Amino acid sequence: MHAASDFLIRAGQRFGAAFGAALWLALFASPVPAAPPQPPLQLQTAQQSGSIGKYAAPGEAALPGICMEILRAVERVDPGLRFVGLERRAPLRRIERMLAQGDLDVFFCLLKTPERAQQWRYLPVPLYRVRHMVVQRIDDAQVLRSTADLIASGLKKPVLVSQGTVLQQGLARAGVVTAEAPSEREALQMLLLGRTDAVYGQDVNLLRNLRESGLGDKLRLSPTVFLEDLQYATVGRQLPADAEQRLTQALQALERDGTLKAIADKYNR
């Protein structure tokens, strides 16, 4: 070892420090082992029905939905990960029951509330930001600028929200009279028929439904943002910690390389 060191010192003096350093690395540096591939892992999930912005049924829309695209991006960044059960489509309330009962391992995407966090776990990476907004008829002159305006509108006709969402709970706590529709698409049809004067929802879903339904010349998205919130991936409490960590790492990679933002931008146009 001493002889090798003396040789390197002499080589460095003769040929320069750069040569000596390179020779030292060639002789003594250990190769960095490649990270082993992740083992195959299948996780049970499902699609949410009635929410075209998150999961579009085949033939229902030109884009598959923001949550479906995020799910597929996770599979691409971790090729050993596969989500199964996507042939199942269920309304949000049933999705929540399945998640709470352990029938689903993971679900993309849900808003976070203290009540929900007691039933399942939320992964720490925000998937995308949503804005709570309303759709009105184009010929409706009233401007809804605040929760007080929503309260006043609801006293005339209930403000419509999609069935099973936590948005209705928030409006009820604020004193807004609401009614539920099976989906945003049906809520917009009821708005067009005069059953309500406002449909309250998330901008991603409302924009998709306005565009896909062809009602953009009769209905308008009001500019007021009543609240901003974040959507997350959730996992059942039965999911092992290593699987949860693997999902989190995949989402963190998608956050770092800008994929999550790019998907969200596509659905906010």
TrEMBL record:
<protein>
    <submittedName>
        <fullName>Transporter substrate-binding domain-containing protein</fullName>
    </submittedName>
</protein>
<dbReference type="InterPro" id="IPR001638">
    <property type="entry name" value="Solute-binding_3/MltF_N"/>
</dbReference>
<feature type="domain" description="Solute-binding protein family 3/N-terminal">
    <location>
        <begin position="51"/>
        <end position="269"/>
    </location>
</feature>
<keyword id="KW-0732">Signal</keyword>
<feature type="signal peptide">
    <location>
        <begin position="1"/>
        <end position="34"/>
    </location>
</feature>
